[in-house]
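re: that chain from earlier
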Amino acid sequence: MIDLNDVVVFARVVEAGSFTAAARLLAMPKTTVSRRVAALEREVGVRLLQRTTRSLNLTDAGRSYYEQSSQGLRAIEEANLRLAEARAEPSGTIRVSAPVGFGSYFLIRAVVDFLELYPKTNVELRLTDDKLNLVEDGIDLAFRTGTLQDSTLIARKLGATRRLLCASPDYLTRYGMPESPADLARHRCVIAGSSASVAHWVLDGPQGQETAVVAGRFAANEMQAVVAAALAGFGIAQLPQAMAEGLIDQGRLQRVLDDYTTPAGGLHVLYPSSRHLSPLVKAFIELAAERISNRANTA
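^ sequence. v structure.
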């Protein structure tokens, strides 16, 4: 049976260009290096190296054997590196970006759990509905909802997001509860966008997908402002499910059109590269993925 250590020694001799140089790299006597290469040649049954007093050259068989075996050695080294990373305790600072609604009403809980689980870590959380440039802004990973734009970033889908229709109890007392999507046209709505004049809300319901034309007196391109307007009684709003459920449980909002939600959009985590992903980033992604999965299973 071929001794893998003999293959490693052979590869180092080829890369170093001589038995003497390889012996220095491997921190072993030159005679041991020569003996191991000879043992490998006996095992494979062919000469791999042509040795003279002045030069060392690969035979055709040796060149082919090196090219193939070195790929396997690199794969083993990569596997050892990944294993060492997996066993390493996460430490250091991780910079995370997320939409305001998702981050403040859901991700913050995962951050707290992460910090308690890994005491050698720090988290810098940037909540913004703007799409930051991860590389330029020094962000390790970002959570994004909806449809992803074309990007060189690595994306992992964690789940799906929906929005629920909600309004304050005060608003519904004054203006009544709509009974169908068509009724929304007669209500004031808080628009998540740049214009309060007209918006088209696509809803999934018992009869399939329907589109409601809505308008209102207030629009904002930032979710916290939309939430504040809904709480203040300015109208019916579409809010991310994780955010809406918390406010509904507190009695601050009521759900409108219980049988309707917006179509599901993707929830992804993005990061610049999947190669040599640090234990810190891996651990945060896995914890967030677990929390999101648990929430989906209990929803």
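The two ends are 56 Å apart (CA to CA).
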